[in-house]
């Protein structure tokens, strides 16, 4: 009798140990398989800034890519860049991952010089370097791409991003902040660069209204089904 109890106890402990080990292995496995946060296609070091709190909205995996500045801005310096404010509202509703485009060479801190450099970049069709590794976009179905309007379109550094990742086959959603140009040419730029993507209606928010734009952002997202 006593021997039977000991055998039973050992068997129960063995089952418990196996269950715990299995959970640990599963957890590690899912961490390794989770979507890229700052991983580069080339496997370079982790990015300085991508962040994520989860990336699911329903069954869709969503990434928010944005470029935004606090200095050299029309109404700066700012605590948080206008476009980042909007990006964070989208993140709060969708639970998406975020990737920030960080320039390898920062722009000037004054507005006038920034506009001159931006215009020169546009005239030269430049591709300013990005400091942080590009995200692995393979697992995402939907990618929001947000930036300030510079001279009527996305800043050229967003083109650098667009040239570096293939977003064909995905759902793309532009958003901007601006001082009057709305979405500029962002929607048509995305459609031209990725002919096999579906480009949804974007949202342009005036920079000075970014902080109070949450209801508009939510309404827009709801209209798109997010
Ligand atoms: C270089 C540069 C060019 C700009 N060009 C335009 C423009 O063509 N149309 C417009 O409405 N706003 C333009 N703006 C204003 C910005 O789009 C606006 O201030 C934006 O909200 C800044 O966003 P951020 O804080 O996320 O960088 C320009 C600003 C800069 C710095």
From TrEMBL:
GO terms for molecular function: FMN binding. This is Flavodoxin/nitric oxide synthase. Pfam families: Flavodoxin_4. Residues 32-56 are annotated as: Disordered. Residues 37-52 have a biased composition (Polar residues). Residues 80-222 form the Flavodoxin-like domain.
């Amino acid at each position: 009798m006593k021997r039977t109890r000991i055998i039973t106890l050992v068997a129960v402990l063995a089952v418990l140990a196996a269950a715990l080990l299995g959970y640990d292995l599963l957890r590690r496995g899912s961490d390794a398989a989770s979507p890229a946060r700052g991983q580069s296609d080339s496997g370079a070091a982790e990015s300085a800034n991508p962040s994520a709190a989860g990336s699911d909205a329903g069954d869709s995996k969503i990434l928010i890519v944005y470029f935004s500045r606090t200095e050299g801005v029309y109404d700066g310096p700012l605590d948080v860049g206008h476009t980042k404010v909007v990006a964070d509202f989208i993140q709060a509703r969708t639970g998406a991952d975020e990737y920030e485009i960080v320039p390898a060479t920062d722009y000037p801190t004054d507005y006038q010089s920034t506009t001159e450099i931006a215009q020169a970049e546009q005239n030269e069709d430049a591709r300013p370097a990005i400091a942080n590794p590009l995200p692995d976009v393979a697992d995402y179905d939907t990618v929001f791409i947000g930036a300030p309007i510079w001279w009527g379109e996305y800043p050229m550094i967003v083109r650098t991003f667009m040239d570096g990742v293939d977003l064909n086959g995905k759902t793309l959603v532009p958003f901007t902040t601006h001082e009057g140009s709305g979405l500029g040419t962002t929607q048509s730029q995305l459609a031209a660069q990725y002919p096999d993507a579906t480009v949804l209606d974007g949202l342009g928010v005036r920079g000075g209204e970014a902080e109070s734009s949450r209801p508009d952002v939510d309404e827009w997202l709801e209209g798109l089904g997010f």
